[in-house]
């Protein structure tokens, strides 16, 4: 059974989507229907439901749904269903995997559903290199609208939290959105010999450090080989010094 959430403020549009999902002939259960940003915020903050995919309108009766997604990361991939094409970039930066413009056909919905199934099947595929639970994370599956690709944790020069977004920056300083709800959730899976949290929002890979410069009395400017510049917080600098030894 695939658990679906529908976020739509227009009753007729919500009914149409529910019927079209039934017509897919898949084992689908709509576990929640939300019609406002306030309802979405409350649901994201309190839900314990298992959700597989979310169908989401963007402009709701009380505002833009991204106001909710900026506060709490959705627990599942998003298929956006909207009358506006102006939010496509934001959509794919918010776990969006498909973007349906109203009025959409059953065929378009089926294409989006197939993309969801393909992405989840790839992400769930067993690997010959499955990570033992008690060992540091070695690689991360990263989902985009077009594909799922894998990166080794050592390829990230540093990792940064920006609100509810967790981003890894590689050796060429290219950004990758990582599927973790918080920096703390990722940090506990990293190799503590290789990665160190230098401030509230950034974790650095020791192998990516070019040099350190004194920024102020109790802080370093961390210069990375990919050109990025980070700063240690004053509360973390002493521990960082000890970790480097």
UniProtKB/TrEMBL annotation:
Cite the PROSITE patterns for this sequence: HTH_LYTTR (PS50930), RESPONSE_REGULATORY (PS50110)
GO MF annotations, alphabetized: DNA binding; phosphorelay response regulator activity
* Gene3D superfamilies for this protein: 3.40.50.2300, LytTr DNA-binding domain (2.40.50.1020)
Using the record's annotation, list all stretches that form the HTH LytTR-type domain. Answer: 182-245
Q: Which UniProt keywords apply?
A: Phosphoprotein, Two-component regulatory system
Residues covered by the Response regulatory domain:
3-117
Question: Where in this protein does the record say 4-aspartylphosphate is found?
Answer: 57
Q: Sorted alphabetically, which InterPro entries does this protein's record hold?
A: CheY-like_superfamily, LytR-like, LytTR_DNA-bd_dom, Sig_transdc_resp-reg_receiver
Which Pfam families does the record cross-reference, listed alphabetically?
LytTR (PF04397), Response_reg (PF00072)
Write down what this protein is called: Uncharacterized protein
């Amino acid at each position: 059974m695939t658990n679906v959430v529908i976020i739509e403020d227009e009753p007729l549009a919500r009914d149409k989507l529910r019927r079209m999902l039934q017509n897919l002939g898949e084992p689908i259960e709509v576990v929640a229907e939300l019609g406002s940003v306030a309802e979405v915020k409350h649901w994201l903050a309190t839900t314990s439901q298992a959700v597989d995919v979310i169908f989401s309108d963007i402009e709701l009766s009380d505002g833009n749904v991204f106001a909710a997604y900026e506060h709490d990361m959705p627990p599942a991939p998003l298929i956006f269903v909207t009358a506006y094409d102006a939010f496509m970039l934001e959509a794919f930066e918010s776990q969006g995997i498909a973007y349906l413009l109203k009025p959409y056909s059953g065929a378009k919905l089926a294409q989006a559903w197939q993309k969801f199934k393909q992405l989840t099947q790839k992400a769930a595929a067993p690997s010959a290199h499955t990570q033992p639970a008690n060992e540091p994370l070695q690689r991360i599956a990263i989902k985009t609208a077009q594909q799922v690709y894998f990166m080794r944790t050592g390829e990230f020069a540093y990792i940064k939290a920006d609100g509810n977004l967790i981003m890894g920056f590689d050796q060429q300083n290219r950004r990758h959105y990582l599927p973790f709800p918080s920096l703390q959730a990722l940090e506990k899976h990293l190799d503590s010999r290789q990665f160190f949290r230098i401030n509230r929002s950034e974790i650095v890979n020791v192998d990516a450090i070019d040099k350190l410069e004194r920024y102020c009395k109790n802080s370093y400017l961390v210069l990375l080989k990919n050109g990025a510049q980070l700063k240690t917080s004053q509360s973390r600098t002493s521990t960082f010094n000890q970790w480097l030894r």
